[in-house]
Amino acid sequence: MLVLSNEDYLTLKLEWTKLRIEKLDEIEAKLRKMKELAEFARDYKLSKKQIDLVNAKIHRFQQEIIDLDEQSRTFWLDAH
Fold it and tell me: Rounded CA gap, 54 and 35, in Å?
């Protein structure tokens, strides 16, 4: 079992918090791109092929968001 001082624990928690904020910023950027794609699709008459491409990009962003969230959601020392 790993035993850390309170200061070491808080230092690690701070580093994890910085990482989490970085990942949340990446998630926000991907959500903005998804919104732009959705608005583009709404505002222009797209062909079936173009719609499929937009949907594929949105789906890829969605999976990337899920991955980013899962990678950074839990501070490893607090996981049980």
Answer: 11
Task: Tell me the whole-structure pTM to 2 decimals.
Answer: 0.85
Cα 30 to Cα 16: distance, rounded to the nearest angstrom: 21
- CA 24 centroid distance within chain: 6
In 1-80, beta strands by DSSP E: none
Instruction: Tell me the average confidence (pLDDT) per consecutive run of 10 residues in the chain, 80 residues long.
Output: 87 95 97 97 96 97 96 80
DSSP state of 68: H
State how far the Cα of 5 lies from the Cα of 21, in Å rounded to an integer: 24
